[in-house]
Amino acid sequence: MAKKVSMKDIAEKVGVSTALVSYVLNGLEKEKRVGPEVVKRIHQVAKDLKYKPNQIARSLRRGSTNTIGLIVADISNPFFGQLARVIEDEAAESGYTVVFGSSDENSEKSATLIDILLNRQVDGLIITPSEGSTEQIKMLLQGDIPVVLMDRYLPDISTNRVVLDNFNATYTAVNYFISKGYKKVNMIAYKSSLVHMQERIRGYQEAMKDNGLANEVVVKEISYSHAKSEMEKVMEDLLLDKKIDALLFATNALSISGLYAIRKHHIKVPEELAVIGFDGHEVFDFFQPPLTYIQQPLEEMGKESVKILLDQIKGSRKKVQVELTHRLIERASCL
Known about the structure:
Blueprint: H1 7-14, H2 18-25, H3 36-48, H4 55-62, E1 67-72, H5 78-93, E2 97-102, H6 107-119, E3 124-127, H7 134-141, E4 147-150, E5 160-164, H8 166-179, E6 185-190, H9 195-210, E7 218-222, H10 227-241, E8 246-249, H11 252-264, E9 274-278, H12 282-286, E10 292-295, H13 298-313, E11 321-324, E12 327-329
Parallel strand pairs: 1-2, 1-3, 3-4, 4-5, 5-11, 6-7, 6-8, 8-9, 9-10
Antiparallel strand pairs: 10-12
Helix pairs in contact: 1-2, 1-3, 5-13, 8-9, 10-11
């Protein structure tokens, strides 16, 4: 194995002190008044010798690791996978690396991930909070590490956040159904106390009431941990009941599970059942007919989260709370 090139090797080659090489390679040449010719020579020799700095030592000296911690609910969910890619690309533009993990909607796993990321000395955290994580986020905010909540927020905590206007997203979807003549609109959502899910349910309920359909409100709630089996049962009950002509899914994952159940039961969409999903997915394009869905501004959400976090890392103490607007992508699943 070849010997690793050190600053001492560069210093000997150039004919200067190791301290002087350290000043130049750490960007302190102006502060230490090192001449431009010497600076140029040191960089050239470092390049020729293929010198690679010790990143851990450099991070300790600077008090920064140039890494961001990202915790999402489920990285296997295409929504969070795409969001993580946007964040990774955006952070890289500013010289930051992203280290991420999935909480799997489990507050204990979320707490473990936070500890791991803090031990890795990340410069800041972007977190999609899970149910039951309020106290751990409160404790985190008592420290001096910057935090941005993304996709969801916790009502008991006032901090930086980038979220969707979830109420108006589902309110719009219901109004769209009704404009197409559907009256018996049901909704399938997760059993969750998290604000984003409660706001989606509230948007559905309020839109139904505002259209004189309060008696037709039906929300079927499914647990995250048993989503597949419970979706099968809920869909069977709804489809056999026949007291439904339109169905709204509250998340990407629920939309996909629901589409499989609809196909299994040979339900004709939109002739027998109109459908609107949440978030985009390639499955929506392959399903026949293509699915109408509520689109979240995924790229904007990721970029805004990184921007706010980097501003905080650089010293900003301004609290930023961004609420983004959805788009309804009209396809053929509603007549």
